[in-house]
Amino acid sequence: MLDLTHDAPAPKVIQGAKEDWELVIGLEVHAQVASMAKLFSGASTAFGAEPNSNVAFVDAAMPGMLPVINEYCVAQAVRTGLGLKAQINLFSAFDRKNYFYPDQPAGYQISQLYHPIVGEGEVIVDMGPGVARKVRIERIHLEQDAGKSIHDMDPAASFVDLNRAGVALMEIVSRPDIRGPEEAAAYILKLRQIMRYLGTCDGDMQNGNLRADVNVSVCRPGDYEKYRETGDFSHLGTRCEIKNMNSTRFIQQAIEVEARRQIAILEDGGEVVQETRGFDPDRGETRSQRSKEEAHDYRYFPDPDLLPLEIEQGWVDDIAGTLPELPDEKKARFVSGFGMTEYDASVLTAEVENAAYFEEVAVGRDGKLAANWVINELFGRLKKDDDRDIEDSPVSAAQLGQIIDLISKGDISGKIAKDLFEIVWTEGGDPARIVEERGMRQVTDTGAIEAAVDQVIADNPAQVQKAQANPKLAGWFVGQVMKATGGKANPKAVNDIVTAKLGL
Amino acid sequence: MSAPETIAEARDALRKGDVTSAELTEGYISAISEAGALGAFVHETPDLAMDMARAADKRISEGDAPDMCGIPLGIKDLFCTQGVASQAASRILDGFTPEYESTVTAKLWRSGAVMLGKLNMDEFAMGSSNETSTYGPAVNPYRRSGDTEALTPGGSSGGSASAVAASLCLAATGTDTGGSIRQPAAFTGITGLKPTYGRVSRWGIIAFASSLDQAGPMTRTVRDSAIMLQAMAGHDASDSTSADIPVPDFEAALTGDIRGKVIGVPREYRMDGIPKEIDTLWQDGVRMLREAGAEIREISLPNTKYALPAYYVIAPAEASSNLARYDGVRFGRRAKSEPGDGILEMYEKTRAEGFGAEVQRRVMVGTYVLSAGFYDAYYNRARKVRALIKHDFDTAFDKGVDAILTPTTPSAAFALGSMADADPVQMYLNDVFTVTVNLAGLPAISVPAGQTEDGLPLGLQLIGRPWDESGLLNTADVLEREAGFVARPERWW
């Protein structure tokens, strides 16, 4: 397998009033499993439905109702684990996490505390060409999402929407291996990218598909390395957890301000208190929500309604056999196979749909040319058109491939090709036919070009004299000929003929 | 002819056309209407019953009559019944009418059985005397001879026991978490079977302790239990803990022959302070089975003494979590709020006024044993004890024991109110012979086998191998025949 080698990035250093500090960050990412039905019921997971319309009796915790595991969600978690090169646990079990809240109808969430379905894995987080952070995954477990409480519809009452209650989540827990706000954002985006490749999470952060609890602590330079050598957490600072973040921009801001808050406390001779904090983006600060003493006692215990989840290696192997090529491998193959830069390969592989589009364009063609067209023309045009998704591109991969073929055959120039692209974009149609019908074909007939050159020379005797004195001015004649031929003349042929006719 | 007394008799009479389900049902509706003093039925459904009876008669006349077709039943209030109040005898479920039917009752109705109504019980099945019911207790149709003091029918399936014993229905459903089918059956002179955990679906039965709860039949005879279990049992994909294994023909297993069967008699069940008449009954049971050709063997179940404490950790732990959903948010009762009350006050007031004292006690005990710092000392240790208890039984069965004979209860029915001021543990001691079975997930049956000097019924318990309800029922059938229990409560209500 192809592999790119990387250097680890330097950790983010924050200069306090007195000394330098480093950041240590661990993330718990809650990723909604891409599945039609919920984790323990057949109710739909469709987003945006009428409130309380996608609720099975068990989702509302009606008396006597029982959960039944959705096998597809289990397969999705296994698939995700395989994608993160993680240990798949053939034995896992569900536990109840008990707490009262109106959007938690049973009074407990079904989760996996003691025996998660996925164990240790690893994610390569790219931080630029040749630079990447290796983040260790501690575990992934399956659990239910809660419903939604709505407090602003009525001054005296709260409302509850249980559509989301019971939707399957994967909680992906990292080790404290992330060393700066940018790395945290890049880590989440990398997880998102991998899961989108796998088809296990849609990764739509705005709709809450992907949320993160961020654990932040600070330490002095050198302490983190001691932790990595010994595994002893006492080398690290006390951490605070910032809950329920669903924007990478806010996550970065929150980490930065939280780190600065902790540094100020420590430099003042104080102690950081382990607690749960919330980030207020309007005021740009984190605020205490719950101290360790006030922390819920969740009274976890094995859910007696569910038998332990035992899966077979053969089933895992079957899933492994259906894994697609993942972003790291695809990127490495693009670099080596198409001779493109790592940067271009990163851009093309960022979204699995983009990579697929590119490959369809590139197959049997000049990879670099294809990459240029996809990155510069297509992506630029999509962006200009209200950030349109590539699936909705009016120019299909086949059409773009035909345009590139016309360039390669010399039928059209690069400049004409851009015009052609715009026509296909707005009007559609077969690129080759458009070239024919609209007379866009490049003129390579030297007789026609010679006639045009002769005409320009005849019309501009003064310019001829100047050009003969200063051959650099021959370009002016080329421009005039191109203009006279409506841009269709082959520029190289025009150049050759102009040079010859002027006797340069 | 006289009205059939058992499911088996009724089945035959219905098939022969000697009686119709409508006639049977009318008779029971009338009996129920006169038996208010027993407090057995808490929601009566006479119109529904007559509709079901007529539908059953039609099926019978068309020759499509499963064994339970046309049989009028009472249903414990713990079962969710679609369109019929189902509130686990709790105030907190005031007004709760499910939009779904439990798997067990749905199977019974599909086989043509008729629902007479819902039966009293201890609140959320927590209790051994039916006194924790929000409706007030069901009353035992038996009284001590020459005495009018009201006695408990036992609990938690007290209404089921009272109704079957008083002939207010041909049979009833019960549920058993620590003895809630067997103890009331023993107190009222009827047969009660707790099947192997997983034999009967729990879907739609309001949960008390999920790893222990199991529904079963409460009937007048062992044969009736076999017939009724047949209709209740079977795999249900909606209950992950229900077992996907074949259901044998239980009635066909009643051969009347137990020659060569090995009956274990556990020495640890011979407890200090056990009343003489209970011990005598047990000895009689041993003799009867021996005379029927069984081999009697003393066995040891060494961890028995830890069963009750382990049970009273595990069951409340699960209950504390299972009952968290009764919060006033979505169904049932919600307490009135004062201005300024938030969600916490709503929870606290709703649960304080919705749950009775015993339920509150167990929720608190369960919350305590699961809390951080206590989990290992209580819950985890109880789970280990549970594994040891199961191992005790496995060892006995591995050595060739086919069934185990014990008393069902340490006493006969006691007077309602007599335990009111007692330590709650005194009440829990009622379960001393029955909880081991739930912890080990085994099938067990209580068979009426004798009476006290003052005429109260006493039961013997037979415990079977996992999934061997057939063998268990066959042994019980022989014990029933040998014991020849024929007492009937003298009608006073």
Cα gyration radius of chain B (Å)? 21 Å
- Give start-end ranges of low-pLDDT stretches of chain B: none
From the spread of the alpha carbons, the general shape of chain B counts as globular
CATH superfamily of the domain at 7-255 in chain B: Amidase signature (AS) domain
Count of individual helical segments of chain B: 15
The greatest inter-chain interface is formed by: A-B, 30 and 43 residues
Strand/helix succession of chain B:
HHEHEHEHEHEEHEHEHHHHEHHEEH
Describe this protein's structure.
The complex is a heterodimer of chains A (504) and B (493). Chain A contains 16 helices and 16 strands. With 504 residues, chain A is α+β, with helices and mostly antiparallel strands. The longest helix of chain A is centred in the middle third of the chain and has 20 residues, at 248-267. Chain A starts with 12 loop residues before the first strand and ends with a helix. The relative contact order of chain A is 0.10. The mean pLDDT of chain A is 93. Chain B is globular, with a radius of gyration of 21 Å. The mean pLDDT of chain B is 97. Chains A and B meet through loops of A and α9 of B.
List keywords for this structure.
heterodimer; A: 504 residues; alpha+beta; 9-stranded mixed β-sheet; 3-stranded antiparallel β-sheet; 16 strands; 39% helix; B: 493 residues; Amidase signature (AS) enzymes; 11-stranded mixed β-sheet; 15 helices; 13% strand
